[in-house]
Amino acid sequence: MADATIITGQYIQIDQTPASAGERLLARAVDMILMFLYEAALFVIFIYGYRYNPSIPAYLYRSETVMFVALLLFLIPVLFYSLLWELFNRGQSPGKKLLGLRVVMKDGSAPTLGASLLRWLFLLIDIHLFQCLGLLSILLTKNNQRVGDLAAGTLVIKEKNYHQINVTLDEFAHLDAHYRPAFPQAENLSLEQVNLISQALFRYDAERPQRLRELGIKVRQYLKINPPVDDESLLHTLTRDYQYYALEEI
Description:
Number of helices: 11
Radius of gyration: 26 Å
Strand order of the largest sheet: 1-2-5
Structural class: mainly alpha
Number of strands: 5
Largest sheet: 3 strands, antiparallel
Helix content: 55-70%
């Protein structure tokens, strides 16, 4: 699973791994089971009190106020289950907590009220109206986002793979307003690949020329590019282009 890596306006690098479709479905199944158990418990309590508890006057169960409160107790937790848990528990429902998942904004922060509302509203489209639309969106999008995530600008990530790394401004001195990437293919590189290139560039020893030559060949083959520049220049340019696209993710 590829990492969703961005660099924020405060120059903090965020590395986070999107949850897979299977993990999200399993978390959803756990939440559905909990909702069912809640509804079943309320139903048993209500029926038991109505039929078998003589200390409770029967007319109370015919009261419009009591019926209205009972209806609210049945419907509100189910209708607003995802919204309330994710809003007040920093992006985690019980199912997501159990699976080690969390909803975050693209910059790694907790979901806002607006984002949480959008995700909740789009559940109607993703799950209830078009049964497979949410699953297809998760399978086909780069960061495994359902339609509600795309609309809200959120991700569901694996909590244990979330990292924040401070980045020095010097690393981005070349990325001024007029900088344009030389190689759009640099966007396809992973953070690990760019780190490997950087280590090769800034390790000065007797094997450096051979190392850069071999890495240059692999990079050209992987990205399907063959520019008329030396390997060192190519690798430097690719790291800068990667940083440009990382900043564009903000």
